[in-house]
Amino acid sequence: MAPLNTARFHVTGELRVPGDKSISHRSLIFSALAEGNSRVRGILRSQDVQSTAGVLRALGVDIPELSGDISVTGVGPAGFRTPATDLDCGNSGTSARLLAGVVAGSNITGRFIGDASLSGRPMRRIKIPLEAMNARVETSATGGLPMTVHGARLQQIEFSNETSSAQVKSCVLLAALCSGIEATVREPTRSRDHTERMLAAHGVEVWVNESAVLLFGGQSLTSLDLEVPGDPSSAAFFAGLAALAPRGELLLTQVCVNETRTGFLAALTEMGASVVLDDKALKSGEWIANVRVKAGGELRGITIPPDAIPTLIDELPLLACIAAYATGETRVTGAGELRVKESDRISAVVNNLKLLGADADELPDGFVVRGTHPRLRGTVTTHGDHRLAMAFGVLATLPGNEIAIDDRDCVAVSYPEFWEDLRRVTA
Ligand code: S3P
Q: Rg for the chain (alpha carbons), in Å?
């Protein structure tokens, strides 16, 4: 079959992607923990963030309906109440793991539930440190949800995690904050640090270096006026699309470019794409920039070093898709965590690529994709995973490809307007 001819395809325009998902979850949780009224502008209004809002309401916090500009009245670190209902986290691992820390540190009991995907995801990783702090955590027989967290007066902890995880780190820090105790969390490589940055913006003293975070005990949070920057994991789909297009340019405005999140832009650059950050500025503790990606570069395959994985973990399915249109091989290892995301993203992305006609193989902790510039045909099975739907959605826009997606609606978890925005920049 002739290779894909994208000569007439182009991208154009300017896009402000929705607010960062990780920061949006945290903005609600930390506003709830603070004294007085905090203001959050530009929060992501997606299903996952709605899950966090719903759980906080069940814990007695008056979270208003999510809009572009909300005000949250904090209840303080000791103000959470025993919920009268189950705490439904939907599809959201961040909601379950961070809010389990809140319940554990608040000396209350809460039962966390979620959809089929979340129920199968591992919770032992938070059970271990929370129980070391003196809470009790009962998971399902397979170590997932339903999970009942019995809070207690916690004791201080120095926890060394085997795997880097911002959710686990944040769970421990939140438990410590609610109990007023000191906590140290060490990780093999630094995970995304939005929790530490937001705590500092709320006036909390946290000590941070490359591999550890130390939170001092007995601290309270001042209120904050926060504008949530654009989500780099959502911007990535458009950066990737621009890199694949033969002509045009996309300007992605006000994107969070925190260096724990920019691994995908670095990878695209290494593959040969033209990526420029303009007007970089620090706002409420987070670096923000306008990201300009020019089309027309010839992409080449790359090897991602394992220690870079945390900086692009959520973008790896997209990277695999783009690698099919790079010359040579792209290899990812050290990314076993992908198997326990919203789906097993290693097998899901490789199986879909193969089924459509690309050349890819699974590795135990990653994948190899050999770039053949294929014409892809078939139906993608997303397993309800938003990032798979969007990654293959990008490939579906390339002329010559005939790709259907079994569940387009699952993008609502992180980017409800994705299909509309995709149409806009390729029109
Ligand atoms: C997140 C942390 C990462 C990431 C997830 C969001 C967060 O998960 O993959 O999408 O907001 O803390 P892990 O903590 O499991 O690495």
A: 21
